[in-house]
């Protein structure tokens, strides 16, 4: 993805660099703290608040930066973070043992909930490759409603269109679902309903323009 400044807007959208890691970690942890799926996966509020100080959480975001998958938005300071991954159907290179060690460090006794979400969402993904996957997008609470999410979305969708790729995501709220629909996404299969009174995730897909 190329760096860009959104026209007619004070919001700057760009790929994160290694120099952003400290700020990105703090912003992302604060931005996802009240997100519905994050709260279900890790209901321990104190543990969730500590995400920004977790070495494992920082390692995850650092890997996304290294892959060029992490896009940020804001002005002088970062206020929004999104993770875009190109999915081509190949086996992941990550060591699964190392991955689960990281996950257990972050989620502790709730690691089974993480596995539940990953398993459920994996079955809902498109079967035709490649495509671009918006894995996560979060904006600091005090900056919501100012267009940062839309700006990051437009940035990623331009990349998808340039490469002729469909874009897939899961919407976790009615508000997010409406936002994605305005950008050309349509429902892709039935909702994913998490157990134990968990939230529902609506898979959505957008074909390239």
Automatic annotation (TrEMBL):
<keyword id="KW-0808">Transferase</keyword>
<feature type="domain" description="N-acetyltransferase">
    <location>
        <begin position="11"/>
        <end position="206"/>
    </location>
</feature>
<dbReference type="GO" id="GO:0016747">
    <property type="term" value="F:acyltransferase activity, transferring groups other than amino-acyl groups"/>
</dbReference>
<dbReference type="InterPro" id="IPR052523">
    <property type="entry name" value="Trichothecene_AcTrans"/>
</dbReference>
<dbReference type="InterPro" id="IPR016181">
    <property type="entry name" value="Acyl_CoA_acyltransferase"/>
</dbReference>
<dbReference type="Pfam" id="PF00583">
    <property type="entry name" value="Acetyltransf_1"/>
</dbReference>
<dbReference type="InterPro" id="IPR000182">
    <property type="entry name" value="GNAT_dom"/>
</dbReference>
<protein>
    <submittedName>
        <fullName>Acetyltransferase (GNAT) family protein</fullName>
    </submittedName>
</protein>
């Amino acid at each position: 993805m190329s760096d860009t400044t959104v026209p007619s807007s004070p919001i700057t959208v760009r790929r994160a660099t290694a120099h952003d890691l400290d700020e990105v970690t703090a912003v992302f942890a604060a931005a996802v703290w009240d997100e519905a799926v994050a709260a279900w996966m890790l209901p321990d509020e104190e543990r969730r608040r500590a995400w920004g100080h977790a070495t494992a959480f920082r390692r995850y975001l650092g890997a996304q930066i290294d892959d060029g998958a992490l896009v940020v938005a804001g002005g002088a300071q970062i206020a929004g973070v999104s993770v875009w991954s190109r999915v081509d159907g190949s086996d992941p290179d990550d060591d699964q043992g190392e991955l689960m060690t990281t996950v257990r460090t972050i989620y502790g006794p709730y690691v089974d909930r993480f596995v539940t979400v990953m398993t459920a969402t994996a079955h809902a993904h498109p079967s035709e490759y490649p495509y671009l996957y918006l894995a996560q997008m979060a904006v600091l609470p005090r900056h919501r409603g100012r267009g940062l999410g839309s700006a990051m979305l437009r940035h990623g969708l331009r990349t998808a269109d340039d490469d002729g790729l469909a874009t897939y995501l899961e919407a976790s709220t009615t508000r997010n679902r409406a936002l994605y629909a305005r950008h050309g996404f349509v429902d892709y299969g039935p909702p994913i309903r998490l157990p134990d009174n968990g939230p529902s995730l609506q898979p959505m897909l957008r074909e390239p323009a």
